[in-house]
Amino acid sequence: MNFPSRIKQFFRRTENNSANITLYDQLGGEQAVRSIANRFYDIMEHDAAAKDLLAMHPQPMIAIRLKFFEFLSGWLGGPQLYVEKYGHPMLRARHLPFHIDTKMRDQWLHCMYLVLDEQVTNITLHNELRVRFTRLAHHMINAND
């Protein structure tokens, strides 16, 4: 499938010292990325600090877990599973129907930071992902507090 350059740029590979290796590969590929996606929703479902975030998600969350894995796969430089199924993510546009303020952003980041703390032991990779997820979460805000 041939994607426009802006989509390719969105999913660009990142530099890792002297080698050009994706974050997807650095994490350990499909199994690791799937684990991150699933653990994120496990935390959301069971951590009281994410109760408002959980409330905005349809139940059961089987389909959304898969979509999140597919998105992360491409976003981290791996297979473009989400794009192949649904087209460009257009994350902000797809989330406009939902009230996302700093409270929702913080709950989302709380879950993601816990996942990173649990599953990403390489400190350089951990920090890179934390920065990227934080940037992504800030971008999603579409409502005032």
Automatic annotation (TrEMBL):
<dbReference type="InterPro" id="IPR009050">
    <property type="entry name" value="Globin-like_sf"/>
</dbReference>
<keyword id="KW-0479">Metal-binding</keyword>
<feature type="binding site" description="distal binding residue">
    <location>
        <position position="138"/>
    </location>
    <ligand>
        <name>heme</name>
    </ligand>
</feature>
<dbReference type="InterPro" id="IPR044203">
    <property type="entry name" value="GlbO/GLB3-like"/>
</dbReference>
<dbReference type="InterPro" id="IPR019795">
    <property type="entry name" value="Globin_bac-like_CS"/>
</dbReference>
<dbReference type="InterPro" id="IPR012292">
    <property type="entry name" value="Globin/Proto"/>
</dbReference>
<dbReference type="GO" id="GO:0019825">
    <property type="term" value="F:oxygen binding"/>
</dbReference>
<dbReference type="InterPro" id="IPR001486">
    <property type="entry name" value="Hemoglobin_trunc"/>
</dbReference>
<comment type="similarity">
    <text>Belongs to the truncated hemoglobin family. Group II subfamily.</text>
</comment>
<dbReference type="Pfam" id="PF01152">
    <property type="entry name" value="Bac_globin"/>
</dbReference>
<dbReference type="GO" id="GO:0046872">
    <property type="term" value="F:metal ion binding"/>
</dbReference>
<protein>
    <submittedName>
        <fullName>Hemoglobin-like oxygen-binding protein</fullName>
    </submittedName>
</protein>
<keyword id="KW-0408">Iron</keyword>
<dbReference type="GO" id="GO:0005344">
    <property type="term" value="F:oxygen carrier activity"/>
</dbReference>
<keyword id="KW-0813">Transport</keyword>
<dbReference type="GO" id="GO:0020037">
    <property type="term" value="F:heme binding"/>
</dbReference>
<keyword id="KW-0349">Heme</keyword>
